[in-house]
Each structure stands twice: as C-alpha cells, then as structure tokens.
Design brief:
Chain lengths: 606, 560
C-alpha cells in the first residue's frame, strides 16, 4: 500500500520527533504556553481598559488561580449527570435521522457502485468508511455546536447552573454525552457498513463444464483439469483442478474461489481474499546507483508522482531494505511446511523500450548480512508490475556453492538483515518506495482491522465534538457551527493551508490569490513590481503569519483517516491508533481548558 | 415608512410575481398526449433535447443530479480534481469509479465521454507492464465509450470514436498481435450472436463507423466538425486494415476476399458525394471525368478565338518592365537569385484567367460574348471542382489505397506474401534453407507485382516499409548461411526507393559499384517485364516468370 509519510515509533513521535520537527509532547507544551500567555495578556488588556491597571492585574490573578483550582476539582459524578442530560437532549433532537440517511445511502449505493473493478473491496470499504465519516462528523457538528447556545437562549442553562456544578463540568459533560451518542451511531453504522460490504462483494460462480480440458503429465497421465468459470458479477476466473476435481478459481479482481467436487458437481465457494489485514514488518530503504554507490533516491523516470524512484537494470543499481529485529519469531512456513522468511515485494516496472511484450522484466532478490557482507545467491523472478509478489525465502540458502543459514549467517547479532533487489534487463527500470518490501507477519483479523478504522473515525468525531462544544461556550449556535466547519475544512486541507502560510504554494498568499482571481491572472503569471504589489505582499505576510500560528493548533484530519489501510487490506498499526488517541486527548484537554475559561466569562456560569 | 407604503410594496411585488409567472407558465407548460405544450416543450421536441430523445434515462444519474441540489458544477469540478489525483497516484480502481460517477453527473456531455475514454484506453493502459492488464484498460475505455453512446443515442461522434478505438487502438498498438488475440477471445465484450470470424477489431470498428454514417445519413444527426472525407472513408479503410491484418496473420484466402471487398467499398466511397467546407460538392472517383470535362471546355473556349490566349500574353509582356523582360529572357538555370524572384512574380502576372479570354472573345466577336462568358464560368466551376477533388484525394491518399487494394488481391501479391510468411516461419523454426528458398520465391513474386503495378514502387510507402522488413529478415537468413544479397536480387530498386533509414546503404553502394553503372539485372528484369503486358488484377503470372526460375537465379552469394 502507499504510505507517503513514514510512521514514527510512538515514543520517538511523542518525545524526540524526527526530521527537524519537535516531538508531539514538547510541541504541545510550547503551544499551550503560548496560548496561555496570549489568553492572559488578552484578558488583562480587556480588564485594563475597563478597570485600570491594578484592578486588572488583581482580576487576572484571581481568574487564573480560581480557574486552575476549579479545573482540578471536577467531579466525575457531575460530569456523568451532565453527560446524561446531553444524551437525552441529543435524542430529543432526533439524531437518529442520521441513521435513516445512512441506511438510505447504503440502500441506493448499489446504483452507483459496481463490483466489476480490479479491486472492488478497496472501493467498497472506502465508500462505506467515507460515508460513515462524513455523516458522523456532520451529526457531531450539529449536536455540539447548537447545544449550549440553545440552552442559553431557552434559559434552560439556569436549571443547570443553579445546581452545584462548575463550568468545567458543563464543558466535559457535554463532550462526554455527545461522544456517547456519536459512538452509538458509529457502532450501528459500522456494523451495517460491514454487512453491506460483505453482502455486496459476495458472489459465486459455476464451473463452465464445456471449457474443462485435461492436464496431462509428462508420462501421459491425466493429473487434473483446467478451464474457466461462468461470468458472474462481471468477471470470470480461470480454474485449476487436481485429479480429484478439487482446486481453485484463480485470482481475478483481487479474489479467488475454492472449488470442491461433490458427486458429479463442482461447488464453487464464495470469494476468498477480499478481506485481508496483512501485517507488514517494514525495513529502511536505501538505493545504490548504477556504479553501486549509496544515493538518497533512485532515478526519476519523469512521473509527476515522486513517491517511487527507480533503479536501472543491468547495472549495479539496487534497492536495499535493511530490516531490524529479524529473528525466528518473524519466520513463517512455506507451502511445504518448512521455515521461511515470508517477504512481499511490490515492483513498479518502467520500460525504456518494449522488448518482448509477452515476457516480463526480470529481477533478482538476495539477502545480505550488513556486517560481514555475506550474501545469498540471487533468486531470479519475473516482475509483476504493481502487484504484491510473495517470496518465501528458505532459511537454508547458498552463498556461491556454500550452504548457509539465514538466521546464523545473514542476520547480524542485533537482528539486522538486508534485502537487495535489482533489475536484470539492461535499460529497463524497477521503481520502489520504502513500504514496497516487507516481511509479512501472520495476518490480523480483518474484522478487528475494520473496527480500528472505525476508531479512526471515532477520533475525528470526538475532536469535532470538543471543538463544537468549546466554540459554543462563547458564540451562538450558527457561528459556533461555522467556526467548527472552518476548523474541520482547514483540518482536512491542513497541508495546503500550511503551504500557503509558508509561501510554498504557487499563486502566493491569500491576498495575492484574491488579486489574481479578480484580475484573471493564472497562478504563475508574473505580477509587475509596483507599490500595489509591495502592499499586496506586505498584507500577505501579515496574513501568512496569522495562518502559520493557526496551523499550530489545527488538527490534521486527514492524518486520522485509516481508510486506506482497510481498503488496501493492511493492518492498522497499533502505533497509529496510539498516536491518534494521544492527539485527541491533548486536544480535548486544551479545548476543555479554553472552553472552561470562555464559559466563565458568561454571566450565567460564574 | 408608513404601514401603508409597506403594504403597497408587497402588493406590487405580488403582482409582479404573478405577471412574470404568467408567461413562464405559457412558455414552459409540459407536453401531453393531446397538447404540444408550451414553447419550451415544443422546442425540446423539435430539437430532440428531451432526455428520452438523447439516450438512456438513468434513474441513478437523475438522482445524483438532483442530490447535488443545484451544485452539479461544483460536484463535477471536485470529481474531476479527484480523478486527476487518482490518475497521478496510480489508483486506477478509484479513477475508474470516479469517472463513472462523473458520467452520471454529466451524461450528455459528449466531450467528457470522449476525453475520459481516451484517458483510460490510451493513457491508463500504458501504465501497466503486462499486456493483459493493458488490454483490460483498453477495453474498459471502449466500454466507457459504449456507455456514453447509450446515454447519447446515435451520436456520430461517439460512434465514430468507438470505431476508431476498437480499430486503431487494438490494431495499431505495439501489442496489436496480443491485443487482437485477446479481443477475439473476449467473450464478455462480444455479443453472443457475433460469429467467431467477425470478432476482429477492424470489422467491429467498421460496424461502428457504419452506425455513425447511418446516424448522419438516415437519422438526421449532425456530423459536427468532423471532415466528411475522413468520416465516410473510415469503413472502407477499416476493411483494408482488416485485410492487411489477416494477411499478416497468414490467412491469405480470406485476405484475398477481404481485399476484393475493400476495393469495392473504396470505389463506392469514390462515388459518394462529399461536401467541402466551401460548399463545393464532389466525388473523389470523378477525377478522370472532371479532367475530360475541363479539357473539353477549354478546347471549346479556345476554339472561339484560337489566338486569344497568345494575344493576352503578348499584351501583358509588353507591360513588363525592362528588368523583368531581361529576367524572362535568361534561361531558368542561368538566372541570378534576383532574376529568379522576378521570374516567379512574372509568372503570376502573365497568368491568363478564363474570364480574360472570354472578355477578349467578346471584344473580337461581340455576338459570342455571352456564350464565351458562360463557358468561362462553367470552366471556372469545373476547374475548382477538379482542384478540390485532387486535393481531397491527395489528403485521403485515395489513389494509393485504390492501387493497393487492387494490387493486394492479385494472385502474385498473395503468393508473394504467403511465401514470405512461410519463409519467416521456417526461419523461426531454424530451417534456413527452406527460409532462403521461400524468401527468394516471395521476392520474385513481388518483382512481378511491382512490374504490374509500377505506381506501387514509386509511392507505396506502406508496401515499401513491408518490403524493407522482408529484406531485413532475408538478410538475417543469409547472414546465418554466411551469404550476402546477390546482384541478381530482384528488388534492388525497391531497396533504393524505400530504405529511408539506410540500413542497406553499404550493400546498395557495393551492388552499384559491382554493376559499374551498367544496367543491373533488376533493371533489366523490370524493363523486360515492362515490355510484356502488365497482368490485370486477378490474372495469373505467365509461366516464363515462375518463382522457381527466379529462385534458380540464386540472388545470394557466398560471403568472400
């Protein structure tokens, strides 16, 4: 699968960071400090205008000390009581309508979604998870942004604040209550979505009896049959049967079927292989150029998408993955039950000349000890472009003619092993990215993987609820909703937003874009230097600084999406979930504190 | 503002709305069984713009259009962006699905179907290494176009593109050998009642071309900006391509019948009235008739006053400047660049139009003035028609294809191709001697063909390219036998004519040197054959030119 950003180990991500970026925790503290300072300064300035410097200082001090004291005295019991109130309120607001809409979408999805693609499961999962995400986020937005303002408007908030509750309890109670409602909705949608995918993908075929031909061995004996299935669901399979009439319908559209012979009839099973949760064990990729010298990347073949880079065939160019932590626990067994290193490799082929069209490009794979330099004999393979090829590398190998053992001779004492892949045909190229080669550990449960993907949606939902509730503490419902929508939209396009803020996006900053729009200049047209242009850039610099500051607190919604893992049939790493949950917890904490202080400014909640 | 003013304003708004609704109701009242409906409904019927007239009525498409709540344009833009993104990141499943969603949003936007079908067939397919995967996306694009045709029934543009995609993409790609096999075996693509023999991409393409022509000729559909010359020649061209393809695959008897049919269809195309963008109507096969008519009219005009033309030229010469006259008197090869320039412009000045001749006749013989003018007008019209015909013929390579179709169906050409085909097979199986003999037989037959159709060796680039490939294969055979192409090889002139890449440069130079400027055996053979009557298409070769006799001439020599 495509992983454009490397997933850092949890502790590295949390504490130290990488690539010049701070860890998540230090960043959180710095942001919190800056925000606190800005908040304090803002509060003091407002008080200064209204009451003079001394009283302003006194007031600020009191608010901070009281606030901090109150924040530590929140009561789970009160929060739960308020959460129940929020749940009841949501139910009264007919959030169940979301479920009706979801069912309607599933009901008519068949009109738009066909299964005659090369990988229909990918499409189905993506559709179901995306539809769930949008609906759940919409509901989260509506219930969270309008709840408190409605209470203020209807004065029902007085029935709450007359009880001994603190502002913090109200904020946390709302967040918790709406989260419970959203979780229930998500649970129902998740189950229905899964059933929808399974039902949509389910199909079977019949063996086309007239297509069956005998497979004859070298000594003239019939050892099996080959032929094809009937066309169902817009596809058919080639089939191979053994002498007893059992066998497989070979892979088409990313699935297979088992065939068993029962009496005179062949029974074809449902699809196998649509639902997977491969557990990859990744290594670090480096490249060697045509002279065998280490380089950061391979050659560009002119693709706009630079995810993969390429190595030249018939030269010393190679892609080398270094795996750490290789030991007997990562070994699997091959089809004969012998221990092996189960490697999977995705090769992207680029031909500079067509050559023999019916023959694939050949490559070699060999294992190497990074310390001793000892390497196994090359295993030659024919590249299947852009598909996952499986290599069960036996533990008993040869280096020249000398027998060697994978674990003792090729793996270093600290568990490192190199996998070197080369292209053998001159002037042809293989393209790789880091996630293209991995040791495949035993598969995880696809159902559990789906649940994890729902957890990714849940994280986004909780964030929206927290943002919505916090906004609703200081503005009215529609404004809170707009504010939250802006937050979500910018969060979904965070990368673009940051690129504009940093001036890396063609077309300039916001004001320059506006000028280009109005004057009908395209993104790259040069704008003459003039006073107006300089003024435009000055305004943009100010706006860009504001944007950059905002970007520091903007959640990256796309990063929470784990849809691709499920769609491509890969297990969602626990590390990814842990990072997502940590980020959410940090946002809830920050938003809760902000929400608390804003609510305190309201007359009613003091 | 008083309450009364507010009330009056509301009343005024109400009245204005009612007044505006009235013409709206009249204009847009829907048609019923007994009533033609309002103006809009009538126009919709007249211009065939209702959904049922345009093509398939798809509830999914309508639902999607309605579900966008008037933001169809925005949705389409977003989906196009998404499609571009999926293409960039090589996510082909999602790209295809996105295109299908787009299609539901803009089902009657013909350019969209063409553009995205092209994208799948031509751009996405080449991203794959395995030719079977490539074929999958070629077919996917074709099916996408078929779907487009369902939504836009009888669209000549889409039907013609279907013909082009099925014919050209499958039949002209580097992988055409594999694609054609896969296409034949593609049970999911072909309707059940299509005979196995008709499962040829060129024939299926031709079916679509014919449907496109039928849509224009019989169903009143607009040809749009497509050139009639290309549009109407496509079925016959497809037939030629079919004949060529099956010949390449070794089906010679079938190929002969296919060439005969192609010849007939080409002649029929030649008799079709085509309209030039200027409104001139013509038939490409009418060039000889037009030439005769122009000649006759010219003779008739000249006969009215035989010296009129000379008189006019002489008068125009008198008006020339001395420098111009001097340039004219100097022989063309001795003129200076300035004189050449002058002479070129003088040529234009001395040109005499038919009207000038007619006016001169009118002056000399006033009684014939009217007749002369009418004759000049008629001559102008015919000359223009002839000029356009010649241009159109040249653009569509009309003469070449006419000649080619006639040539290929002759027994000699078929025998030549069969011999070369078998020679190639023998070479691949390692039977060098048989390969050599068959190549020599084939070339001897080709000699007969070129002698019978001399135009082929002058301008038949396609056959010429084939010929160079054959000679290259022959040279490979000889190389393995340690021999070279002999001086008595019968097609040295074809090599000289068609070897644009000069792969036989050295051999040709050596051959010419050996022949020492004397007439080569090839030239001798050619001129001897030219003396004999060229065999008519369909006639067999004379016993004197048996391939075996030529083969005995052993057009190969041992390497020194």
């Amino acid at each position: 699968m495509v992983l454009e950003k490397e997933l850092l180990p949890y502790l590295t991500w949390l504490l130290t960071g990488s690539g010049g970026q701070l860890g998540a925790l230090p960043r959180f503290f710095i942001t919190a400090l800056v925000l606190s300072f800005v908040g304090l300064l803002g509060g003091y300035l407002v008080a200064l205008v209204r009451y003079g410097p001394l009283k302003a200082g006194d007031l600020t001090y009191k608010v901070v000390t009281n606030g901090l004291a109150e924040l530590t005295r929140i009561s789970p019991r009160r929060i739960w009581a308020l959460a129940r109130l929020a749940i009841k309120e949501s139910m009264r607001k007919q959030v169940i309508v979301a479920l009706v809409i979801f069912f309607l979408i599933l009901l008519f999805a068949g009109w738009f979604l066909k299964t005659d693609y090369q990988d229909p499961a990918k499409l189905m999962f993506r559709f179901v998870l995306t539809a769930t995400t949008y609906l759940v986020l919409l509901i989260a937005l509506l219930v969270s942004a309008f709840s408190l303002p409605a209470d203020f408007k209807n004065k029902t908030i007085y029935t709450v604040v007359t009880k001994p509750v603190r502002a913090g309890d109200i904020v946390l109670g709302r967040i918790l209550g709406f989260t419970i409602v959203g979780t229930l909705l998500l649970l129902i949608m998740g189950v229905c979505g899964y059933v929808f995918v399974i039902r949509s993908l389910y199909h079977t075929h019949e063996v086309k009896l007239e297509s069956l031909e005998n497979i004859v061995s070298a000594d003239g004996k019939v050892v099996g049959k080959k032929g094809r299935t009937t066309t169902d669901d817009s596809h058919w399979h080639e089939i191979e049967l053994d002498g007893d009439g059992n066998g497989m319908a070979l892979s088409t559209n990313a699935h297979e079927h088992a065939i068993t012979r029962v009496g005179d009839k062949y029974v074809v099973s449902g699809p196998i292989g649509f639902l997977r949760a491969r557990v990859p064990f990744y290594g670090q990729l480096r490249f060697l150029d045509r002279k065998g010298v280490d380089v950061a990347r391979g050659i560009s073949v002119g693709n706009e998408w630079t995810y993969r880079s390429f190595i030249e065939g018939g030269s010393s160019a190679a892609a080398v993955w270094t795996f750490s932590g290789i030991n007997s626990s990562v070994l699997g067994t091959d089809s004969e039950g012998k221990p092996c290193l189960p490697l999977e490799l995705i090769v992207r082929v680029f031909r500079t000349y067509k050559g023999d069209i019916e023959k694939g490009i050949q490559g070699s794979i060999r294992l190497r000890n990074p310390e001793t330099g000892l390497q196994s004999n090359e295993d030659i393979f024919t590249a299947k472009d852009a598909t996952i090829a499986q290599f069960d590398i036996p533990t008993k190998l040869y280096a020249d003619r000398k027998p060697i053992d994978l674990l003792t001779d090729l793996v270093t004492k600290d568990g490192r092993l190199e996998v070197k892949v080369q292209c053998l045909n001159s002037a042809q190229y293989f393209g790789f990215a880091q996630p293209d080669c991995y040791v495949r550990l035993p598969d995880a449960s696809p159902l559990l993987n789906y649940v994890k993907a729902q957890l990714g949606i849940w994280v986004q939902m909780v964030l929206v609820i927290a943002i919505g509730v916090t906004c609703s503490t200081f503005v009215n419902g529609p404004v809170a909703m707009l504010f939250t929508v802006s937050f979500i939209t910018l969060g979904f396009f965070r990368e673009f937003f940051v690129a504009v803020a940093l001036g890396k996006q063609v077309g300039g900053g916001p004001f320059e874009s506006l000028v280009r729009l109005v004057t009908q200049r395209n993104l790259v047209t040069n704008i003459d230097d003039s006073f107006g242009t300089r003024l435009m850039h000055a305004v943009d610099s100010v706006l860009q600084s504001i944007m950059l500051s905002m970007a520091q607190v903007l959640p990256d919604f796309r990063a929470f999406s784990t849809v691709d893992y499920v769609a491509y049939g890969f297990n969602i790493p626990a590390n990814q979930l842990a990072q997502d949950l940590t980020v959410t917890a940090a946002y809830i904490l920050g938003l809760f504190v902000i929400g608390y202080f804003f609510l305190r400014t309201r007359e009613v909640a003091k | 503002m008083s309450e009364r003013t507010s009330f009056y304003r509301k009343v005024a708004y109400g009245v204005a709305i009612a007044v505006l609704l009235f013409p709206l109701a009249l204009l847009s009242s829907p048609a019923t069984v007994n009533d033609k409906g309002g103006k809009l409904a009538q126009m919709r019927t007249d211009l065939h713009l209702s959904q049922a007239d345009l093509g398939k009525v798809d509830p999914a498409s309508e639902t999607m259009k309605l579900a966008t709540l008037g933001l169809r344009g925005v949705a389409v833009n977003l989906l196009w962006e998404k499609a571009n993104y999926y293409k960039k990141v090589e996510d082909w499943t999602n790209l295809t699905a996105t295109l299908e969603q787009l299609a539901k949003l803009q089902p009657n936007f013909v350019t969209f179907w063409k553009f995205q079908a092209w994208n799948l067939t031509y751009n996405v397919s080449v991203e794959f290494d395995d030719y079977r995967d490539r074929y999958y996306y070629v077919r996917r694009g074709i099916q996408f176009l078929q779907e487009g045709e369902n939504y836009n029934l009888d669209s000549p543009n889409l039907l013609w593109d279907l013909g082009w995609f099925v014919g050209q993409k499958i039949g002209r790609a580097d992988e055409h050998v594999q694609y054609r096999k896969l296409f034949k075996k593609d049970d999911d693509f072909h309707p059940e009642d299509r005979p196995q023999d008709d499962r040829d991409n060129w024939l299926v393409g031709k079916e679509y071309y014919l449907k496109a022509i039928d849509a224009v000729d019989n169903k009143g559909k607009d040809l749009g900006r497509k050139t009639p010359r290309i549009f109407y020649s496509s079925p016959a061209m497809s037939q030629m391509n079919y004949a060529d393809a099956i010949e390449e695959e070794g089906y010679f008897d079938k190929a002969r019948r296919a060439w005969v049919k192609a010849s007939e269809e080409w002649a029929k195309f030649g008799q079709l009235v085509l309209e030039h963008s200027t409104g001139v109507k013509m038939k490409l096969g009418d060039q000889p008739r037009l030439e005769k008519e122009v000649d006759a009219l010219k003779t008739k005009l000249d006969a009215m006053q035989p010296d009129a033309h000379e008189q006019l030229v002489a008068e125009k010469k008198v008006a020339l400047k001395p420098a111009e006259l001097e340039a004219l008197e100097v022989p063309a090869e001795k003129r200076t660049p300035a004189q050449q320039e002058l002479a070129y412009h003088i040529g234009e000045k001395l040109e005499i139009s038919n009207h000038e001749v007619a006016e001169r006749i009118g002056k000399t013989h006033p009684d014939q003035a009217k007749a002369a003018l009418q004759l000049a007008n008629e001559l102008d019209r015919k000359q223009k028609e002839l000029q356009y015909t010649v241009n159109y013929k040249s653009d569509s390579n009309y003469d070449y294809w006419e000649n080619r179709a006639k040539l290929e169906q002759t027994p000699d050409a078929l025998a030549a191709r069969e011999a070369i085909f078998n020679a190639h097979q023998a070479f691949r199986q390692g039977d060098l001697m048989t390969a050599k003999r068959l190549y020599q037989e084939g070339f001897a037959k080709w000699r007969l063909v070129f002698d019978a159709f001399p135009k082929a060796i002058d301008n038949d680039v396609s056959t010429g390219d084939d010929m160079i490939d054959f000679v290259k294969q022959y040279r490979d055979v000889l190389d393995q036998l340690d021999e070279t192409i002999g001086d008595d090889f019968p097609l040295w002139d074809a090599i000289e004519q068609f070897d644009k890449e000069q792969v036989f440069k050295e051999e040709l130079a050596a051959h010419k040197e050996r022949m020492g400027g004397a007439k080569s055996k090839t030239d001798a053979t050619k001129s001897d054959a030219a003396k004999t009557e060229s065999p008519k298409p369909g006639a067999t070769s004379t016993p004197a030119k048996k391939p075996a006799d030529n083969a005995k001439a052993a057009p190969a020599v041992k390497k020194p």
